[in-house]
């Protein structure tokens, strides 16, 4: 099946290319789990989002 008919596969492939960015974002969130608020780890989230978008275009 093509990625178009299996969007979850396309998502999984794209996410697999961004493990470093995902790890940094997760570490940022966990540092103060009780104090999570909007835009707490915005820089890390933007890097993760950009990585995912770039990887999904290539897939």
UniProtKB/TrEMBL annotation:
Q: GO biological process annotations for this chain's record?
A: mitochondrial respiratory chain complex I assembly
Question: Among the entry's GO cellular component annotations, what is one?
Answer: mitochondrion
* Record protein name field: Uncharacterized protein
């Amino acid at each position: 099946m093509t990625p178009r008919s299996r969007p979850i596969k396309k998502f999984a492939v794209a996410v697999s290319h961004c493990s470093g960015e995902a790890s940094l974002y997760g570490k940022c969130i966990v540092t103060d789990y009780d104090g999570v608020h909007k835009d707490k780890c915005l820089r890390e989230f933007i890097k993760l989002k950009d990585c995912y978008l770039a990887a999904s275009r290539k897939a």
